[in-house]
Amino acid sequence: MFSRSCQYALQAVLYISLHGGKNNAIKIKDISDSQEIPIHFLGKILQILVKAKILESLKGPTGGFYIVESQTQLTLLEIVKVIDGLDIFDKCGIGLKACSDDCPCPIHHDYKIVKQKIRSLLHDKTISDLCKDVASGNAIVSYINQQ
Q1: What is the pTM (predicted TM-score) of this model?
Q2: What domains lie within the chain, and their CATH numbers?
């Protein structure tokens, strides 16, 4: 459902939230290596997130990316909105352009329920919530870190 860019953005934000802070900016190479995200692609995504005020950045040799406490209260839906937009929740599940409530595709009504549940989940979960799940051992950020 989400673009690769959006998936990478969610992974990077979570990684930065767990490992960084204003006094510990995370290097793009560390994120790239840990999450197995191409570094140049990641750089573009992180620039978008900084511009949208989802992340902070520091330039220079000690620079990198970090997130402040207030930003950890942002919902996942806010990240999705910045990267993919919210029109993904209006698209047909099998890609038909004319699909609607009045003229549904074969999966329209079932898929509409799924999209509503996903949107609700993303609206209800904050970056902080995900960090708590990882800290409690109920979730992972990267398989590489688990080996």
Answers
A1: 0.89
A2: 4-146 (1.10.10.10)
